[in-house]
Design a protein that fits this description.
Herpes Virus-1; two-stranded antiparallel ribbon; alpha+beta; single chain; zinc; repressor; disordered N terminus; transcription regulation; Transcription elongation factor SPT4; about 120 residues
Length: about 120
């Protein structure tokens, strides 16, 4: 890797789950990480809205253990899969294709008041 891209590649590797147990998917952006990773670093795409970092209860409210499919997103801006899944603006990481569940109504209201449109990624309904 040339230039500064090696440090950004290392930073994006922090988003990758270290273990396949206890995985959860963010209900706003579908990023998949372990409970501990969400609690330690929050959601790199959504933490300014969901504030999961350091708050295990919030992690449980804003993520789901029930999700289908995984997408390894390395270069979101160049990926047709990212465009198809409406993920082109996301950071590199592992994402669920579908996440079962909905954010709590209070969080949805707060998102709306901040100009963030919540579109459920639950494809089961």
């Amino acid at each position: 890797m040339a230039g500064g891209s090696s440090s950004s590649a290392a930073a994006s590797m922090d988003n990758i789950p270290k273990d396949l147990r206890h995985l959860r998917a963010c209900m706003l952006c579908s990023l998949v990480k372990s409970v501990d990773q969400f609690e330690d670093t929050g959601c790199e795409n959504c933490d300014r809205y969901l504030r999961m970092r350091g708050n295990r209860e919030q992690v449980h409210h804003c993520t789901s253990t029930q999700f289908d499919g995984l997408i390894a997103l390395l270069h979101p801006e160049d990926s047709w899969v990212a465009k198809w899944q409406r993920m082109a603006q996301r950071l590199p990481g592992i994402y669920a294709v579908s996440v079962t569940g909905r954010l709590p109504s209070g969080i949805i209201r707060e998102l709306k008041s901040r100009g963030v449109i919540y579109k459920s990624r639950d494809m089961t309904t």
